[in-house]
Design a protein that fits this description.
Elements (H helix, E strand, L loop, with lengths): L2 E9 L8 E10 L4 E6 L8 H11 L3 E11 L10 H17 L8 H10 L2 H49 L2 H27 L11 H19 L2 H20 L4 H21 L3 H21 L4
């Protein structure tokens, strides 16, 4: 499903440091599988595994793109070092000089540079993850709204397919009855022609008229079995019931609906292949159009 979400999350400023913020944009388009791409600044590259896990746990299908940007306020270029930072830096300097007596001491500029970035990275990572969480939640809400619209459309197609199946069911007995009458008429015509043109020797052992009529009825019955679509209509109704149940239940149902749509397509094709009348052929074509519309939209559902 398609969707878009964006948000900005501000990081708490370090002691004497400048405030920072992370802006995130998350967008998705239709896709049968999850295709995730990340566009991250260099300072957030280390978050890629965590971001993939976060998005993959919330979104199952679609082509998803995450863009993030970090902004560092520059109103105060020099931080105000805190006591904990200076204590830690002093311990590190003493430890290094204990091992390396020739190492020179830190300058004021080096101390200020270290204090500026001492804890920014960790806090920026937390801010970036929070911004990503907000975007994921916003995208899920947007996709849920679109999913509701798609579900309404699919339910409408289900109702139309039920109506077509209702129109097809009574046509089969009518077609069988017409074909049975046609068989009897043809057999009677053939019998009359054979009787009128046969000689006395050929009429010595004629077939009983009742036997010929039974033969015609048997042919009509075999034809009725071949064109019977009651089983297909029953399976189609069962698939429609399951689709309706899944749509009303909600949740992750895209792949299950994919399978059911394939089954609907198979039943509509069988109905068309068995069709002995133009009325049933027209119904089969209308069913295929509706099923194809459903198939295209089902691929967008998660």
């Amino acid at each position: 499903m398609t969707g878009f979400a964006s948000g900005t999350c501000e990081a708490p400023a370090a002691a004497g440091g400048a405030a920072a913020a992370v802006t995130a944009e998350l967008r998705s388009v239709n896709g049968r599988f999850l295709d995730l791409s990340l566009r991250l600044p260099d300072e957030l590259r280390g978050l890629e595994p965590a971001l993939r896990e976060l998005i993959g746990g919330a979104i199952r299908r679609g082509k998803v793109e995450l863009r993030m940007a970090a902004q560092q306020a520059a109103s105060d270029p020099w931080p105000n070092p805190g006591a904990d930072q200076l204590n830690r830096l002093s311990r590190l300097e003493s430890q290094i000089q204990g091992w390396l007596p020739q190492a020179r001491g830190l300058s004021v500029n080096e101390v200020m540079q270290w204090c500026r970035g001492g804890s920014t990275a960790e806090k920026l990572d937390e801010t970036a993850l929070e911004a990503a969480r907000r975007c994921v939640e916003g995208l899920r809400e947007a996709r849920a709204r679109e999913g509701a619209r798609l579900a309404a459309m699919l339910l409408d197609r289900v109702r139309q397919l039920r109506a077509l199946a209702g129109r097809a069911a009574p046509l089969v007995p009518q077609v069988v009855q017409r074909q049975q009458q046609r068989f009897l008429e043809r057999w009677n015509e053939a019998l009359g022609a054979a009787t009128a043109g046969a000689g006395a020797a050929a009429l010595a052992t004629p077939l009983p008229a009742q036997a010929l009529q039974e033969r015609a009825l048997n042919e009509a019955a075999a034809y009725a079995i071949r064109i019977d679509v009651a089983e297909e209509l029953t399976r189609l109704a069962s698939h429609l019931d399951e689709i309706e149940r899944l749509l009303q239940a909600g949740g992750e149902l895209g792949k299950r609906l994919d399978f059911l749509i394939q089954e609907l397509q198979r039943e509509a094709n069988t109905l068309g292949s068995k069709s002995p009348a133009l009325e049933l052929t027209a119904i089969s074509v209308e069913m295929k159009v509706l099923v194809e519309q459903m198939r295209e939209q089902v691929q967008n559902l998660e």
